[in-house]
Amino acid sequence: MPIKIPIELPAFQVLSNENIFIMNDERANTQDIRPLKIAILNLMPKKIVTENQLLRYLSNTPLQVEITLIQTKSYVSQNTPSEHLDKFYSYFDDIKHEKFDGLLITGAPVEQMKFEDVTYWEELTKIMEWSKTNVFSALHICWASQAGLYYHYNIPKYDLEEKMFGVFSHTVNDEKADLTRGLSDIFYAPHSRHTEVRREDIEKISDLEILSEAEDAGVFIVTSKNRRKVFITGHLEYDRNTLKEEYLRDLEKGDKVNLPKNYFKNNDSNQIPSQTWRGSANIVFGNWLNYCVYQNTPYDLNTL
Prior knowledge:
25% strand, alpha/beta, 304 residues, 2 domains, 12-stranded mixed β-sheet, 10 helices, Rossmann fold
């Protein structure tokens, strides 16, 4: 889908250079169609990087996608220029009266904290509650998937003995499922987290389906049966070098961290890592937009 974003947003130039189909407001206004309204609650520290990653996968199909970027009011990012946030981001209070076809909630580096101890937890729960009535389908990534499963279904998260860090092979549990349609029998995805949710807890909830999992990394894609809640425990949106940058960052901080698994050739961090998950990311994000959102969302969002 051509992404409708301001021409001044850094992602506009980044994606243009990659020959990804994007559209500025002036051109979009000449098309007599209703764009899909997608809100992104960006909880990641480096928000511009995350914008580029997500917008790359929400693009390049025949329909317009209109993006609204949201930041938390209860916590102000220390890693993104305030000028960027002021210009391109809204607060929840600014958009809570609106309705959206889709909502995407990113991960956040807070998974070792209790949910209730996270500074913006109360604000996040308000947004997740609002999404039940004002959003057709909400996609939660990594920590947000754990937060969403906890809030909506009271499913706990568990500490891992060591960080789940690297690129892991996954399988599809139902090859006919709309969200995983087109994925190979074995596909790859990055993970970077200290906690997990467990299959046995999810299986107790009749409304939930596990569509994909990994032998090493556990549950991967979980959805409500009507696909209006989607939970992905990994980071399909990551760039080629994101895990490398996280690894080097943790080393510089003095953290005990292992080399990302199945990532560097010959486990040599000086090598350029292979991006083995790009095709899978395109399929999953494309399927979410197509099957979970576009094919089912009402034309008149006021009827949600």
